[in-house]
Design goal:
The chain is α/β, with parallel strands linked by helices. It has helices at residues 55-58, 61-68, 76-84, 155-162, 179-189, 209-219; strands at 5-8, 14-18, 21-25, 47-49, 71-75, 92-95, 100-103, 106-112, 118-121, 124-127, 132-138, 141-145, 166-170, 193-197, 222-223, 231-233. The longest helix has 11 residues, at 179-189. It binds zinc ion (ZN).
Length: 234
Protein backbone atom coordinates (compact mmCIF):
# COMPACT_ATOMS: atom_id res chain seq x y z
CA UNK A 1 0.00 0.00 0.00
CA UNK A 2 1.26 3.46 -0.86
CA UNK A 3 1.98 5.67 2.08
CA UNK A 4 2.82 9.31 2.30
CA UNK A 5 5.34 10.59 4.80
CA UNK A 6 5.06 14.20 5.85
CA UNK A 7 7.94 15.91 7.65
CA UNK A 8 7.20 19.33 9.13
CA UNK A 9 10.19 21.67 8.90
CA UNK A 10 8.67 24.55 10.85
CA UNK A 11 6.62 27.58 9.76
CA UNK A 12 4.97 26.58 6.45
CA UNK A 13 7.78 24.33 5.19
CA UNK A 14 7.21 20.63 4.79
CA UNK A 15 8.56 17.64 2.93
CA UNK A 16 6.35 14.93 1.49
CA UNK A 17 7.74 11.58 0.45
CA UNK A 18 5.44 9.67 -1.89
CA UNK A 19 5.86 7.41 -4.94
CA UNK A 20 9.66 7.63 -4.65
CA UNK A 21 9.50 11.42 -4.90
CA UNK A 22 10.61 13.98 -2.35
CA UNK A 23 8.42 17.06 -2.61
CA UNK A 24 9.04 20.23 -0.63
CA UNK A 25 6.31 22.83 -0.13
CA UNK A 26 7.52 26.36 0.70
CA UNK A 27 11.00 25.15 1.76
CA UNK A 28 12.19 28.10 3.83
CA UNK A 29 14.91 26.40 5.82
CA UNK A 30 18.20 28.27 6.39
CA UNK A 31 16.62 31.48 7.65
CA UNK A 32 13.67 29.75 9.29
CA UNK A 33 14.18 29.99 13.07
CA UNK A 34 11.85 27.00 13.57
CA UNK A 35 13.64 24.67 11.16
CA UNK A 36 15.70 21.96 12.89
CA UNK A 37 19.41 21.86 11.99
CA UNK A 38 19.13 18.43 10.36
CA UNK A 39 16.58 19.72 7.83
CA UNK A 40 18.35 22.91 6.81
CA UNK A 41 20.46 21.30 4.06
CA UNK A 42 18.28 18.61 2.45
CA UNK A 43 20.25 16.17 0.27
CA UNK A 44 17.43 15.64 -2.21
CA UNK A 45 14.29 17.43 -3.37
CA UNK A 46 12.68 16.32 -6.63
CA UNK A 47 9.94 18.94 -6.71
CA UNK A 48 9.51 22.26 -4.93
CA UNK A 49 6.00 23.73 -4.80
CA UNK A 50 5.60 27.40 -3.91
CA UNK A 51 2.34 28.83 -2.61
CA UNK A 52 3.43 32.46 -3.04
CA UNK A 53 6.43 34.73 -3.26
CA UNK A 54 6.84 36.01 0.29
CA UNK A 55 10.31 35.52 1.73
CA UNK A 56 9.22 33.11 4.47
CA UNK A 57 8.01 30.75 1.73
CA UNK A 58 9.94 31.32 -1.51
CA UNK A 59 13.22 33.10 -0.74
CA UNK A 60 15.36 29.93 -0.70
CA UNK A 61 13.66 27.99 -3.48
CA UNK A 62 15.85 29.14 -6.35
CA UNK A 63 19.07 28.33 -4.48
CA UNK A 64 17.74 24.90 -3.52
CA UNK A 65 16.63 24.13 -7.07
CA UNK A 66 20.02 25.14 -8.46
CA UNK A 67 21.91 23.07 -5.86
CA UNK A 68 19.71 19.97 -6.04
CA UNK A 69 18.37 20.08 -9.61
CA UNK A 70 14.80 20.24 -8.25
CA UNK A 71 11.83 21.22 -10.37
CA UNK A 72 9.83 24.21 -9.13
CA UNK A 73 6.05 24.45 -9.62
CA UNK A 74 4.49 27.86 -9.04
CA UNK A 75 2.12 30.37 -10.57
CA UNK A 76 3.29 31.76 -13.90
CA UNK A 77 4.64 35.02 -12.49
CA UNK A 78 6.53 33.38 -9.64
CA UNK A 79 7.87 30.71 -12.01
CA UNK A 80 9.25 33.48 -14.25
CA UNK A 81 10.89 35.08 -11.19
CA UNK A 82 12.54 31.72 -10.42
CA UNK A 83 13.97 31.69 -13.94
CA UNK A 84 15.18 35.27 -13.43
CA UNK A 85 16.99 33.91 -10.34
CA UNK A 86 18.85 31.48 -12.61
CA UNK A 87 16.78 28.32 -12.28
CA UNK A 88 16.99 26.58 -15.68
CA UNK A 89 13.78 26.69 -17.71
CA UNK A 90 13.82 22.88 -17.91
CA UNK A 91 13.30 22.77 -14.11
CA UNK A 92 10.45 25.29 -13.95
CA UNK A 93 6.78 24.22 -14.06
CA UNK A 94 4.63 27.30 -14.55
CA UNK A 95 0.94 26.82 -13.81
CA UNK A 96 -1.96 28.59 -12.18
CA UNK A 97 -4.93 28.11 -9.89
CA UNK A 98 -7.45 25.48 -10.91
CA UNK A 99 -4.95 23.60 -13.04
CA UNK A 100 -3.38 20.21 -12.39
CA UNK A 101 -0.06 18.83 -13.58
CA UNK A 102 1.25 15.31 -13.09
CA UNK A 103 4.83 14.96 -11.88
CA UNK A 104 6.15 11.41 -11.33
CA UNK A 105 2.68 9.98 -10.65
CA UNK A 106 1.77 12.80 -8.27
CA UNK A 107 -1.08 15.11 -9.30
CA UNK A 108 -0.42 18.68 -8.26
CA UNK A 109 -3.26 21.20 -8.26
CA UNK A 110 -3.08 24.87 -7.32
CA UNK A 111 -6.11 26.24 -5.47
CA UNK A 112 -7.36 29.64 -4.38
CA UNK A 113 -5.85 31.38 -1.38
CA UNK A 114 -6.79 34.84 -0.14
CA UNK A 115 -3.58 36.64 0.74
CA UNK A 116 -1.02 38.73 -1.18
CA UNK A 117 2.15 37.83 -3.02
CA UNK A 118 5.35 39.63 -3.90
CA UNK A 119 8.95 38.53 -4.27
CA UNK A 120 11.91 40.49 -2.93
CA UNK A 121 14.68 41.35 -5.39
CA UNK A 122 17.66 43.73 -5.09
CA UNK A 123 15.54 46.21 -7.09
CA UNK A 124 12.70 45.95 -4.57
CA UNK A 125 9.59 43.75 -4.32
CA UNK A 126 8.17 42.36 -7.56
CA UNK A 127 4.64 41.20 -8.32
CA UNK A 128 4.63 37.42 -7.92
CA UNK A 129 1.20 36.45 -9.23
CA UNK A 130 -1.67 35.45 -7.00
CA UNK A 131 -1.08 33.42 -3.85
CA UNK A 132 -2.41 29.88 -3.86
CA UNK A 133 -2.85 26.69 -1.93
CA UNK A 134 -1.85 23.30 -3.26
CA UNK A 135 -3.36 19.83 -3.35
CA UNK A 136 -1.10 16.82 -3.95
CA UNK A 137 -2.72 13.52 -4.85
CA UNK A 138 -1.34 10.10 -5.56
CA UNK A 139 -2.62 6.54 -5.28
CA UNK A 140 -5.76 7.57 -3.39
CA UNK A 141 -3.90 9.83 -0.98
CA UNK A 142 -4.64 13.54 -0.95
CA UNK A 143 -3.02 16.37 0.99
CA UNK A 144 -4.02 20.04 1.01
CA UNK A 145 -1.51 22.74 1.99
CA UNK A 146 -3.47 25.99 2.24
CA UNK A 147 -0.48 28.33 1.90
CA UNK A 148 -1.12 31.66 3.58
CA UNK A 149 -4.81 32.43 3.42
CA UNK A 150 -7.93 33.81 4.99
CA UNK A 151 -10.87 31.48 5.45
CA UNK A 152 -13.11 31.25 2.38
CA UNK A 153 -16.28 29.32 1.68
CA UNK A 154 -14.97 27.66 -1.47
CA UNK A 155 -12.69 25.52 0.68
CA UNK A 156 -15.80 23.34 0.63
CA UNK A 157 -15.18 22.80 -3.09
CA UNK A 158 -11.58 21.80 -2.42
CA UNK A 159 -13.01 19.16 -0.11
CA UNK A 160 -15.60 18.04 -2.63
CA UNK A 161 -13.17 17.86 -5.55
CA UNK A 162 -10.00 16.50 -3.97
CA UNK A 163 -11.12 14.94 -0.67
CA UNK A 164 -7.90 15.59 1.25
CA UNK A 165 -7.33 13.22 4.15
CA UNK A 166 -4.86 15.67 5.60
CA UNK A 167 -4.81 19.47 5.56
CA UNK A 168 -2.00 21.81 6.58
CA UNK A 169 -3.61 25.07 7.69
CA UNK A 170 -2.11 28.38 8.81
CA UNK A 171 -3.24 29.38 12.31
CA UNK A 172 -0.87 32.21 13.27
CA UNK A 173 -3.44 35.00 12.82
CA UNK A 174 -2.67 38.60 11.73
CA UNK A 175 -1.40 37.61 8.23
CA UNK A 176 -3.57 34.48 7.83
CA UNK A 177 -6.40 32.65 9.51
CA UNK A 178 -6.28 32.33 13.27
CA UNK A 179 -7.09 29.11 15.13
CA UNK A 180 -10.89 29.51 15.05
CA UNK A 181 -10.99 30.20 11.30
CA UNK A 182 -8.52 27.40 10.58
CA UNK A 183 -10.63 24.89 12.51
CA UNK A 184 -13.65 25.86 10.42
CA UNK A 185 -11.46 25.51 7.30
CA UNK A 186 -10.63 21.98 8.36
CA UNK A 187 -14.31 21.23 8.67
CA UNK A 188 -15.06 22.77 5.25
CA UNK A 189 -12.41 20.68 3.46
CA UNK A 190 -13.55 17.59 5.36
CA UNK A 191 -10.07 16.38 6.23
CA UNK A 192 -9.55 13.59 8.77
CA UNK A 193 -6.43 15.25 10.16
CA UNK A 194 -5.64 18.96 10.42
CA UNK A 195 -2.06 20.05 11.03
CA UNK A 196 -1.38 23.65 12.07
CA UNK A 197 1.33 25.65 10.28
CA UNK A 198 2.49 29.28 10.11
CA UNK A 199 2.52 29.89 13.87
CA UNK A 200 5.08 30.25 16.65
CA UNK A 201 7.79 31.47 14.25
CA UNK A 202 7.58 35.18 14.96
CA UNK A 203 6.14 37.16 17.86
CA UNK A 204 3.53 38.67 15.54
CA UNK A 205 1.99 35.23 14.98
CA UNK A 206 -0.16 34.89 18.05
CA UNK A 207 -2.38 31.91 17.22
CA UNK A 208 -1.47 28.83 19.25
CA UNK A 209 -1.71 25.09 18.73
CA UNK A 210 -3.63 24.76 22.01
CA UNK A 211 -6.36 27.08 20.75
CA UNK A 212 -6.42 25.27 17.40
CA UNK A 213 -6.88 21.91 19.13
CA UNK A 214 -9.72 23.34 21.18
CA UNK A 215 -11.53 24.80 18.14
CA UNK A 216 -10.95 21.62 16.12
CA UNK A 217 -12.47 19.53 18.90
CA UNK A 218 -15.54 21.79 18.78
CA UNK A 219 -15.76 21.24 15.00
CA UNK A 220 -15.32 17.48 15.33
CA UNK A 221 -11.95 17.56 13.52
CA UNK A 222 -8.82 15.78 14.68
CA UNK A 223 -5.90 18.18 15.08
CA UNK A 224 -2.38 16.75 15.02
CA UNK A 225 0.28 19.18 16.18
CA UNK A 226 3.74 18.41 14.80
CA UNK A 227 6.87 19.84 16.36
CA UNK A 228 9.34 21.03 13.71
CA UNK A 229 11.20 17.93 12.57
CA UNK A 230 8.35 15.57 13.42
CA UNK A 231 6.78 13.29 10.84
CA UNK A 232 3.29 11.99 10.16
CA UNK A 233 2.33 9.04 7.94
CA UNK A 234 -0.89 8.57 6.03
ZN1 LIG B 1 2.69 35.31 2.99
Amino acid sequence: MTTLKLTFAGHSACFLEIQNSVIAIDPWLQENPSCPANLKMPPRIDLIVLTHGHADHASEAAALAKRLGSSIAATWELAMLMMAEGVPQSQVIPMNKGGTVSVNDVQLTLTHAFHSSSYDTPQGPRYAGEPCGVVLRSAGLSVYHAGDTALFGDMRLIGELYQPQLALLPIGDRFTMGPAEAALAAKLVGCKIAIPIHFNTFELLTGTAEEFKKFCAAQGVQAVVLEPGATHLI
